[in-house]
Amino acid sequence: MNDIFFNQPNWQKELSNAISDVASLYELLELPLPNEFHAPTKFPLRVPHAFIQKMKKGDPNDPLLRQILPDIAESLPVAGYTADPLDENTHNPIKGLLHKYQSRALITVTGACAVHCRYCFRQHFDYGANLPNSQDIRQICHYIANDKNINEVLLSGGDPLNINNRRFNEWIGALSDIDNIKTIRIHTRLPAILPNRIDDEFIDILAYCPKNIVMVLHINHANEIDNALAQKCQTLKKHGVVLLNQSVLLKGVNDNVEILCQLSHALFDIGVLPYYLHILDKVAGSAHFDLPIDRAIQIYWQLLEKLSGYLVPKLVQEVAGKPYKVPIDIYKNC
Ligand SMILES: *Cc1c(COP(=O)(O)O)cnc(C)c1O
Ligand code: SF4
User: Fold this and answer.
1) How close is the Cα of 102 to the center of ligand 1, in Å?
2) What is the pLDDT of residue 254?
3) Is residue 120 lining ligand 2, measured as CB closer than 6 Å?
4) Looking at ligand 2, which residue's alpha carbon is closest to its atom 7?
5) Intervals of the chain under pLDDT 70
6) Exposure of 11 by Cβ count < 10 A (0-12 exposed, 13-18 middle, 19+ buried)?
7) Best exposed site among 198, 232, 233, 242 by fewest CB in 10 Å?
8) What pTM did the predictor assign?
9) Has residue 59 been placed in a domain?
10) Residue 21 covered by a domain
11) Residue 267: enclosing H or E segment and its boundaries?
12) Please, which residues bridge with residue 213 across strands?
């Protein structure tokens, strides 16, 4: 008998059953397979069934499908779009640690994600060279404990919920011992991609953690929100987790005021407040998702007009070398 097999939680089974073959995806969505399609071997298609189920069958322009379907345009070089647009490799004091902003340190606990978002700014990041082992974990905690300016740690990746509960608990335990840390923040797309990831054991880990816990979800479109996610958010909130959301402004996905208003309302309905709306990072392979900054600003003014103040995310952009996420100057053309 193989205990490990029988004890494997459902979400891990769902993760290993993720679709990685373009033809199967078209079939599941009842779409005719085009003569030519893109099937990259580096950063290939990856999407779990739970996310596919939220897509509309027979719609090649489904906003969820567009986020994960490899596009031939990815392989064409575009001037100004590079592998490391944020110059992250220069803020990497220890393997697995990014320290760019004074009071926050970011840990890349894994390079793996449940889904491969085609616009991802970390798609070229060298995770292999950057994954912390047990010794690195001690070094990272030592670094953080020695810099009293740091009061918050971000668990990121990849997706920090891609690791199992035992390893996740190791991180939470180690960080909980650091006095200057007030808040542990988890940046994750997994709840929207695979709601079952938020299992009872995981909830317990957060519930017993003595630090403030903030979870920043990554949802770009209201269609990503369903009952399964709503229930998980309710449970998280019941245990004191603060829920926020960040989105990326993406052409053909959410570059429209109605869609963004729907998103803010749908988030609020499940107890999540909009935090950031990011201008796309200019990473190689993502140019076809970008829109002119003036168009982004125009959409933003419309959002201000339509939404309650607390439902308007901050429009920001990451600029290499800046010690914060840079607010977009919306008065530029006024
Ligand atoms: C985005 C980010 C943070 C967090 O920034 P906030 O403005 O506090 O959300 C911290 N460190 C790094 C490296 C980041 O990219
Ligand atoms: S979940 Fe986040 S880190 Fe992972 S591929 Fe998507 S955008 Fe990138």
Assistant:
1) 10
2) 98
3) yes
4) 120
5) 1-8, 128
6) buried
7) 242
8) 0.96
9) no
10) no
11) helix 257-269
12) 184
Asked if residue 189 has its Cβ within 6 Å of ligand 2, the reply is yes
In this structure, what are the phi and psi dihedrals at residue 80, rounded to the nearest 5 degrees?
95, -10
State the CATH number of the domain containing residue 290.
Answer: 3.20.20.70
What is the structure's pLDDT at 140? 97
pLDDT of residue 7: 60
Q: Is the shortest distance between the CB of 265 and ligand 1 below 6 Å?
A: no
The domain in which residue 97 lies consists of 80-327
Instruction: Determine, yes or no, domain membership for 208.
Output: yes
Give a yes or no: residue 12 inside a domain.
Answer: no
261 is in an annotated binding site: no
Does any ligand 2 atom lie closer than 6 A to the CB of residue 278? no
CA distances from 270 to 182, 222, 228 (A): 26, 11, 11
Do residues 136 and 143 touch, judged by C-beta distance below 8 A?
Answer: no
Residue 325: CB within 6 Å of ligand 1?
yes
Ligand at minimal distance from the CA of 114 is: 2
**pLDDT tens per residue across span 186-210:** 999 999 999 999 999 999 999 999 9
Residues contacting residue 292 through CB under 8 Å, at least 6 positions apart: none
Q: Give the span between the Cα atoms of 101 and 65, in whole angstroms.
A: 34
Give the pLDDT confidence of 46-71 residue by residue, as tens digits: 999 999 999 999 999 999 999 999 99
